[in-house]
């Protein structure tokens, strides 16, 4: 049937695309639902992905979708608004799981397995001017973006940022830690000072750009930095994990196995929402693992009921 799939993948980033490719290569009937919302939407290049270093996230997604065509994967630009696991009496004979997902524009679909790859959202500080330089000279991941600023002036902004400030010494000897009003322990401040890192405790008034990067305004004084790296929290982008019973509202973490399997049979997670490593290459790897696991679970069910193809 047109609205029934072996696997529905929610999320069209590297994790979702990679899961779709593995499942497509297993000749599974796959639907990938892509909301068009991406954590790296401000990034100009993806780094650390072998053979694709420097490729823009948009190009990575475009290439991924093009490569899925030959495998018959259906890609829909839509949003999953609701999802639920089927009860035992609603499933097909011999299947240990099943799901109904309600799409915003195209109605309900049914899946034997589901892979959530909906990602996370960075919780950015509400500093005036921040969003005008976010993705230009303000970043969240030094492994992704610090190499481009090696030897230049760097800064860390946010609570509990001492370790991140020390890490930035990998790329620069000139690092400033902006605590932005958050408490800094005497031990941390001493540790930073020993390594030549200045700590500014005061609230940041504003951030704006200049020809060399950005200016951080503290106590009415502008401090130039070529780049700032945020020490910020992340939250799950989607509430589907709450609807499906694998997360409660008190936590952003989701328990899962090495291949993304969750406590709900037939439900997997992959990519940034798994909160293991926030790298493109890791997201792609986790997506592939989840795709293989979903296929093998379906295959075992089909072998047991004698319908394996």
Characterise the protein shown here.
The chain has helices at residues 14-24, 57-68, 130-133, 142-145, 162-167, 186-194, 240-243, 280-305; strands at residues 4-10, 30-34, 74-77, 80-85, 99-103, 107-116, 120-123, 138-139, 154-157, 175-178, 198-200, 204-210, 213-218, 221-225, 227-230, 233-236, 267-269. It contains 8 helices and 17 strands. The model has no long low-confidence stretch (mean pLDDT 95). α1 packs parallel to α8 (280-305). β2, α2 and β3 form a beta-alpha-beta unit. The two termini are 18 Å apart. Strands 1, 2, 3, 4, 5, 6 and 17 form a 7-stranded mixed beta sheet that branches. A 5-stranded parallel beta sheet has the order 8-15-9-10-11. Helix content is 25%, strand content 27%. By secondary structure, it is of the alpha/beta class.
How would the blueprint of this fold be written?
Blueprint: E1 4-10, H1 14-24, E2 30-34, H2 57-68, E3 74-77, E4 80-85, E5 99-103, E6 107-116, E7 120-123, H3 130-133, E8 138-139, H4 142-145, E9 154-157, H5 162-167, E10 175-178, H6 186-194, E11 198-200, E12 204-210, E13 213-218, E14 221-225, E15 227-230, E16 233-236, H7 240-243, E17 267-269, H8 280-305
Parallel strand pairs: 1-2, 1-6, 2-3, 6-17, 8-15, 9-10, 9-15, 10-11
Antiparallel strand pairs: 4-5, 5-6, 7-16, 12-13, 13-14
Tell me the number of helical segments per DSSP (H or I, 4 or more residues long).
8
Percent of residues in helices: 10-25%
Global geometry: elongated
Please compute the radius of gyration using only Cα atoms.
22 Å
Terminal-residue CA separation: 18 Å
**Strand content of the residues, in percent?**
25-35%
Low-confidence stretches: none
Class derived from helix and strand content = alpha/beta
Largest sheet: 7 strands, mixed
pLDDT averaged residue by residue: 95
Number of strands: 17
Helix and strand sequence? EHEHEEEEEHEHEHEHEEEEEEHEH
